[in-house]
């Protein structure tokens, strides 16, 4: 399966699918069918080619290419999903946008049986890649904001604790000064008491 360069199928586009069957002997019949519904009325079938002009959401579904020879059958599926037209209207042109997809079906021949390699291809592959790229960009932005906020918080907390630490040491120094004054007062008081006792003994 070769996907179109633009990656997406949108309303108003044209889709062309080409089924190439390979086998021994060469498949003699190659047809397109719609698995989950009838083929759209505006679809054009021409041998291995399927052409759908002016796509719309009613064309969503699974389209199957079937090939057969005298040994057996093989098939390959293409899941079509039509997206909304772009929000910005491009300038009018004289050409029509065509989405072209080539599907290759392999029929391998053995002596008694045919081995097939069915594949399922999804037109949404391009859209899923775009969504993943956007998601990664959003996640990266959120992580950067969170890291920046944590750094700011750490700086603020560091300054806060630094201020309180300085205040603690100031109070501790003040307490030491007060303690020295109290000791001096006690010593003075004891000295005064001894002096009074000495005077009392002198008079006796």
From TrEMBL:
Annotated coiled-coil segments of the chain: none
GO MF annotations, alphabetized: signaling receptor binding
Lipid bilayer topology: Single-pass type I membrane protein
Localization of this protein: Membrane
GO cellular component: neuron projection; plasma membrane; synapse
Keyword Repeat assigned: yes
Keywords: Immunoglobulin domain, Membrane, Repeat, Transmembrane, Transmembrane helix
UniProt lineage: Eukaryota, Metazoa, Chordata, Craniata, Vertebrata
Name assigned to this protein: Cell adhesion molecule 1
Main location: membrane
An annotated GO BP: detection of stimulus
Alphabetical list of SUPFAM superfamilies matching this protein: Immunoglobulin (SSF48726)
TM region(s), chain numbering: 137-157
Top-level division of the source organism's lineage: Eukaryota
Family: Belongs to the nectin family.
Organism per entry: Rousettus aegyptiacus
Residues annotated as domain Ig-like: 1-69
């Amino acid at each position: 399966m070769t996907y179109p360069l633009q990656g997406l199928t949108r309303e108003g586009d044209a889709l062309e699918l080409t089924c190439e069957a390979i086998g021994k002997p060469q498949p003699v019949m190659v047809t397109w069918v719609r698995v989950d519904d009838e083929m759209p009325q505006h679809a054009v079938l021409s041998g291995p080619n399927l052409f759908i002009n002016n796509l719309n959401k009613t064309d969503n579904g699974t389209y199957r290419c079937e090939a057969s020879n005298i040994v057996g059958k093989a098939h390959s599926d293409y899941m079509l999903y039509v997206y909304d037209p772009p929000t910005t209207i491009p300038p009018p042109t004289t050409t029509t946008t065509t989405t072209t997809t080539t599907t290759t079906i392999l029929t391998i021949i053995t002596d008694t049986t045919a081995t097939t390699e069915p594949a399922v291809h999804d037109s949404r592959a391009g859209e899923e890649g775009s969504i993943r790229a956007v998601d990664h960009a959003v996640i990266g932005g959120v992580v950067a904001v969170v890291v920046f906020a944590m750094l700011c918080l750490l700086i603020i907390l560091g300054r806060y604790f630094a201020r309180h630490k300085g205040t603690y040491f100031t109070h501790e120094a003040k307490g030491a000064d007060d303690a020295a004054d109290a000791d001096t007062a006690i010593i003075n008081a004891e000295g005064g008491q001894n002096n009074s006792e000495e005077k009392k003994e002198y008079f006796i």
